[in-house]
Amino acid sequence: MEPLRIGFFLDGYTLRKVNEYYRVHHRFHSRLDFRGLKSWVQMQALRYFQNGVERDLELESHYYHPFTNPHIQKHEGAIRFEHELESAGYRVHFNRVAPDERGVSPNMSLMEDALLFAIYRKLDGVVLFSTQGQFAPLPDRLRMMGVPTLLLGWELEYPRAKTMVHWKTDSCLRETCAHYVAMEKVVDKNPNANKGPRGFFFQCEHPFSRGRPAKWHGGT
Fold this sequence. Notes:
Layout: E1 4-11, H1 12-25, E2 30-32, H2 34-49, E3 57-64, H3 76-87, E4 90-93, H4 109-120, E5 125-129, H5 137-144, E6 149-153, E7 155-160, E8 163-168, H6 171-175, E9 179-182, H7 183-187, E10 201-203
Parallel strand pairs: 1-3, 1-5, 3-4, 5-6, 6-9
Antiparallel strand pairs: 2-10, 7-8
Helix pairs in contact: 4-5
């Protein structure tokens, strides 16, 4: 029997916001571990896409960076981050569009590539890590090709200045997916723990960095 072919597409714009929350505002003071995340995605892909038939799994993992190629300006921190992703088994795709006035924007190549992968790699399912409404057309287009989407979304709340920030998955994106996982509930399922679920987070090595959001990605 042919293996179950799954594409994992990680929106770096969302990851940056998520990691900033867990490093700065959450008690874990940690960031997502890319290897642990990929292993967890493999288990979920088998859970949601096997349809009662046991099959081997082939997972392709792709990270869509919200920034343009750092090699042009020789940004060492971003280049190290790229190597970290590659060593964890992700293919890195840099943004072809210049960042907005805030210095960051979603990498829309994710949507185009996911559709191409579904066609040419004959994917059996897609796992999308994102909260962004810009990607809302993607699950519908995949569905018309017979490819269901599992969305890993987030709903976060934290103080900033004198207001509360509410960051949540766009409803249009969420409603078009075959399956949805509220990731904030997954990583926070043990409210008495001081650390995140084993294999999902790792502790920040530099306590002095807790008050500083990342400049480049969502990790360091």
